[in-house]
Design a protein that fits this description.
CATH superfamily of the largest domain: Ribosomal protein S16
Structural class: alpha+beta
Mean pLDDT: 90
Distance between the termini: 101 Å
Largest sheet: 5 strands, mixed
Order of helices and strands: EEEEHEHH
CATH architecture of the largest domain: 2-Layer Sandwich
Radius of gyration: 32 Å
Length: 137
Amino acid sequence: MPLKMRLARAGSKKRPYYHVVVADARSPRDGRFIETVGSWNPMLPKDAERVTLKEDRIKHWLGEGAQPTDRVLRFLDKAGIANRPTRANPTKGLPGKKAQEREAERKQREEDAREAAEKAAAEKAGAQDEGTEASAE
């Protein structure tokens, strides 16, 4: 049976409260679970004790092969129970594909407008040079 250590939502509407539970990976999020091993109250201020964990039971279930979800692993890492490897996603801050296409189109339009302005300025300067040469003769 694949075990997961995950959050189960409790609390009322717009007032979330989560239990850290060990459950079969196939059971629903708020459904059947094996044991409650902690809780998380995101409504409390960050300097308060938002997360409570039963360290001995968590270590037991980790030894049994329970896989914590990413959020639970963050809590365990902060408590010093488990180690969460750092992740690096260098493309996270980049705009999406459509936004990159729009940016390329905008740059192309600006480049075309600049070239047209330079060409018009060169033609105007050329016309003025011809006009001064004709008047000089």
